[in-house]
Specification:
The complex is a heterodimer of chains A (440) and B (452).
Chain A lengths: L1 E5 L4 H13 L8 E5 L3 H17 L7 E4 L11 E4 L6 H13 L11 H25 L4 E4 L4 H11 L4 E4 L3 H13 L6 E8 L2 E9 L2 E2 L1 H7 L3 H6 L1 H10 L2 E2 L3 H4 L10 H7 L11 H6 L3 H13 L13 H8 L5 E8 L12 E9 L2 E4 L7 H23 L2 H9 L2 H6 L2 H14 L12
Parallel strand pairs in A: 1-2, 1-4, 2-3, 4-5, 5-6
Antiparallel strand pairs in A: 7-8, 8-9, 8-10, 11-12, 12-13
Helix pairs in contact in A: 1-2, 2-13, 3-4, 3-18, 4-5, 4-15, 5-15, 15-16, 16-18
Chain B lengths: L2 E5 L4 H12 L8 E5 L3 H18 L4 E5 L11 E4 L5 H14 L11 H25 L4 E4 L4 H11 L3 E4 L3 H12 L13 H7 L6 E8 L2 E9 L2 E2 L1 H8 L2 H4 L3 H10 L7 H4 L10 H7 L6 H7 L2 H12 L13 H10 L3 E8 L12 E9 L2 E4 L7 H23 L2 H9 L2 H6 L2 H14 L6 H6 L1
Parallel strand pairs in B: 1-2, 1-4, 2-3, 4-5, 5-6
Antiparallel strand pairs in B: 7-8, 8-9, 10-11, 11-12
Helix pairs in contact in B: 1-2, 1-15, 2-14, 3-4, 3-19, 4-5, 4-16, 5-16, 16-17, 17-19
Classes of the chains: A alpha/beta (440), B alpha/beta (452).
Chain lengths: 440, 452
């Protein structure tokens, strides 16, 4: 069983998955891991950490390959994880600051809106290159994408490489379940949930505690000011739309027109800042103190600090375990909507419960979402659709359209203002984008 | 500790099988089992047998028995239905009257005149059970084992608010037969008293994988794999072996001409299509060994009942062995979260896109603590959907005829039955249906008597 990590230098993420790998009862003798990153410094850290994890768990460290050239290791891979970042913090700064000058105030801005669309413009070409190599070297592999913007990237791949087994994974569903359990004082292991929608905007459709429907209790809790203070916009939507949504309140506030369009609303709906909706919070996330971070990595890699073997929230390794025949596992997975959610467009990327069994991922049938939820999903999906076609056909007009229809941008700007903002972003991000965008 | 109500538990052989299945799951051994049958004597037998099982194995189950289901339905979590309405006598009429007209049914409980009349008798009773459930245990899952499966489930979905799934063993049973045909065997030292016993208890090879969808008794092996590889080539090769071919002629012929293997036996399958039973020569050719289910039922339960009596007296142990039936697996999955995949009969809410919306389809479903989750199947290959639709036509008219008490639909249902329509003219069909209505008068609800 060969697992390849592309973008393995996403250190925390790769480390978590490797810990899950050694925690699960996989037959030890079959495990082989390839680590790929174009950043050699990052690659060397994660390689040392991986070697340490293997050594501490009785797996020969020769089973780890590290390379900056993915083509050298893709062949023979049964599983491929992709978690890459294209462009640096300066690109992200432009994603946030240019729109902000126009009054479009984003918190994370990596999956939707001007920031999300431009991140897609930077990232999709690289993802497609990786997919071309996968299609050539390991076409049967299960590919798990953890890179954002999730839906747009999965959709682009579906259009270009429909035969790949390409799935998008996120932890927002599990993480939200944990938060709900905490808010309500419920033991997480007794909580059962059924969640469907699109990535970062999936809906808790059912919530049961030991078999009992506990949604009414959660709806009551929405009026508790303590909860409303730390998870403001999700609680607000729970009050008015009736359902709890995945993703943090801050990120969620970018996915609709209601919370960020005026300074007074921003103040009211993002108390406490940070993940609850701070302006440009992503810059803080990426701009962490580099030096102390490297020191910490060095301590983990060199063995002076113990590795935490706590199970992660990530689905990735559990899915692989089920695919290898370790029993049926249910996970929320992003994939094309082939009849699964009947009131979302047939070609969009949905995040739905899937049952993973030996060698197969089987999406469950969801049917119609409640009308008000499908409507909000569709607002986001139509913007994604135009971004996808803009990217595939290199058409700038589609990129304008994608943002004309973005719920937050549209609530703040006029059409000509949006066009001007997009032009400014194209100009400022020239060095990160393929040349074809600048021919016309 | 779930409460499981078994309605029609006086079907002692089947009830015993399911009760033992339930008890093979440690998680379910503290269940409450409530046994219901309107036949007091039969109810007594299954109740004593269950008591004996409890004693023999020291299981902490609670056992209740009632002839009035309303006494035990309150707060039930699962209701398993296995009733037979009208008994052997009505069944005799279902088979014998059509036979006079040249319609030779081998089972006659699913489609055709026999199936439709069984539905006429059964739907009203089943809907009353559902009304009681809506009143006393509205959130319970109804697990239906009674035939005609598709018509009954369709009527439940259309006319009640009860969550239900219809179960059959033809999918998993056929999968194991197919494994045998292609020569995949499992080491098994068990001795089987009868062919039927072997069918229910022989182990399933672990490296067989299948994806089956369609309608009950006519679902299709869309994928059949051995060790991850498509096993259809092996199956087509197996068909060349006369010994194997002769065991399942009708289904191999269906595979030869339509490309896919179908669930349900060759006997049963031959009733659902026009090709195999329209004259005695064809029957001899395609179904050389007769297997008439009514005759088998008439031969009687005596040997089974004697065995059960010996078990009750403690002269023979009750064997604790799990059968291939899905029922207990479902309850275990919903109680423990140990996910299982079954084929279940559910409403077609967009699952099979080229069968009518709302009809009853048999599709792969996953079961976990939240319940039954059917899978999206998409389009069936067009030739398979076409055969299914000929059966669905009959089912739909039967369902509507029964729910609206509209007798014309019943004539039309049977006039559109593929086998009947291959043999009779429209006026002959009308006479046959009239004769059946007349003969079965006493088994039908008041409304139909008025219409007759």
């Amino acid at each position: 069983m060969k697992i390849t990590f592309i973008g393995a230098g996403s250190l925390i993420f790769t480390r978590r998955l490797l810990v899950d790998l050694v925690r699960l009862p996989f037959p030890r003798e079959g495990i082989e891991v390839a680590l790929v990153d174009i950043n050699e410094r990052r690659l060397s850290y994660i390689t040392r950490i991986a070697q340490r994890i293997f050594a501490e768990n009785g797996i020969p460290i020769e089973r780890i390959t590290a390379t900056t050239d993915r083509r050298a290791v893709l062949e023979g891979s049964q599983y491929v994880f992709i978690s890459i970042l294209v462009g640096d913090i300066e690109a992200i700064r432009k994603d946030i600051e240019i729109p902000l000058r126009y009054g479009v105030d984003q918190c994370i801005g990596d999956t939707i809106g001007p920031g999300g669309v431009f991140r897609a413009l930077r990232t999709a070409p690289v993802i497609l290159d990786i997919c071309r190599d996968i299609a050539e070297l390991c076409p049967e592999a299960f590919v798990f994408n953890y890179t954002n913007p999730m839906s747009i990237l999965c959709w682009v791949v579906e259009e270009e490489y429909p035969s790949l087994r390409f799935y998008g994974l996120c932890h927002s569903v599990q993480h939200t379940a944990k938060q709900i359990a905490e808010y309500m004082g419920w033991p997480l292991e007794d909580l059962e949930y059924w969640v469907a929608g699109i990535n970062h905007q999936a809906w808790f459709l059912e919530l049961r505690l030991r078999g009992r429907d506990v949604y009414p209790l959660l709806r009551e809790k929405a009026w508790d000011p303590e909860i409303a203070k730390k998870d403001t916009t999700r609680v607000e939507m729970l009050k008015y739309l009736g359902y709890f949504v995945t993703e943090s309140s801050g990120h969620n506030s970018e996915y609709n027109p209601w919370f960020r369009k005026r300074p007074d609303l921003l103040q009211r709906f993002t108390p406490g800042g940070g993940w609850n909706g701070e302006t440009g919070f992503i810059l803080k996330l990426y701009g962490k103190d580099r030096e102390s971070y490297e020191q910490e990595l060095e301590r983990v890699a060199s063995g002076t600090e113990p590795i935490s073997y706590e199970e992660s929230e990530e689905y990735g390794m559990k899915i692989i375990y089920a695919l290898e025949g370790g029993g049926i596992f249910r996970a929320n997975i992003n994939l094309p909507n082939r009849g699964t959610i009947t009131n979302l467009p047939p070609q969009c990327i949905v995040e739905v419960p899937c049952f993973v069994e030996k060698g197969r991922i089987r999406p469950a049938f969801v049917g119609d979402l409640p009308l008000q939820l499908a409507a909000l999903n569709r607002m986001v999906v139509q913007s994604q659709e135009m971004a996808v076609h803009g990217i595939l056909e290199k058409r700038r007009d589609y990129i304008y359209y994608a943002l004309y229809y973005d719920p937050l941008t549209a609530a703040v700007l006029s059409l000509d203002e949006i066009k001007k903002m997009v032009d400014d972003m194209f100009e400022a991000e020239r060095e990160y984008l393929p040349n074809e965008w600048y021919h016309s | 500790m779930p409460k499981i109500v078994i309605i029609g538990a006086g079907s002692v052989v089947f009830a015993q099988k399911l009760i033992v299945d339930i008890m093979t799951f440690p998680s379910l051994r503290n269940s409450t089992l409530a046994l219901v049958d309107i036949d007091e004597e039969r109810l007594g037998i299954i109740a004593r047998l269950t008591e004996k099982l409890k004693k023999q194995e020291c299981f902490p189950i609670s056992i209740e028995a009632a002839t009035d289901r309303r006494k035990v339905l309150k707060d039930a979590d699962y209701v398993i239905n296995m009733i037979q309405v009208g008994g052997l006598e009505a069944y005799r009429l279902d088979v014998e009257i059509p036979r006079k007209y040249g319609i030779d049914q081998t089972v006659g409980d699913t489609l055709g005149p026999g199936g439709v009349f069984r539905a006429l008798r059964t739907v009203p009773v089943l809907l009353e059970i559902c009304r009681d459930m809506e009143d006393l245990c509205p959130n319970a899952l109804l697990i239906n084992y009674t035939n005609p499966m598709a018509i009954l489930c369709w009527a439940i979905n259309k006319a009640t608010h009860i969550k239900s799934v219809g179960l059959c063993h033809s999918v998993q049973g056929t999968a194991r037969q197919l494994a045998e045909y292609i020569g995949v065997k499992v080491a098994d030292t068990m001795k089987y008293e009868t062919e039927e016993h072997a069918f229910f208890y022989k182990p399933m090879p672990a490296d067989i994988d299948y994806w089956v969808a369609g309608i009950n008794h006519q679902a299709w092996f869309l994928q059949f794999r051995y060790r991850g590889e498509d096993a259809y080539p092996l199956l087509r090769k197996a068909m060349e072996d006369p010994h194997i071919y002769s065991q399942d002629i009708v289904r191999f012929e269906i595979m030869r001409h339509f490309g896919y293997f179908v669930t349900e036996s060759s006997h049963h399958m031959s009733e659902y299509v026009p090709y195999f039973r329209k004259n005695p020569d064809l029957v001899t050719k395609y179904i050389p060994r007769r297997w008439d289910y009514y005759e088998i039922c008439r031969a009687g339960l005596a040997p089974y009942l004697e065995k059960i009596q010996r078990q009750i007296r403690g002269e023979e142990p009750i064997e604790i062995r799990r059968s291939l039936e899905y029922g207990a697996y479902i309850i275990n999955a919903m109680e423990t979260g140990e996910v299982t995949r079954i084929n279940g009969n559910v409403a077609n809410t967009g699952l099979i896109t080229n069968l009518p919306y709302g009809c009853c389809v048999e599709v792969p479903c996953f079961v976990d603590r939240l319940g039954i989750h059917p899978c999206f199947v998409g389009d069936l290959p067009p030739q398979l959907a076409a055969i299914n639709r000929t059966n669905i036509n009959v089912q739909e008219l039967a369902v509507e005829g029964i729910l609206q008490q509209r007798k014309e639909y019943i004539y039309e249902a049977i006039a559109l039955d593929p086998l009947t329509s291959a043999i009779l003219t429209l006026d002959e069909i009308r006479s046959m249906v009239d004769e059946m209505f007349e003969a079965e008068r006493e088994y039908l609800p008041e409304g139909w008597k008025f219409l007759v």
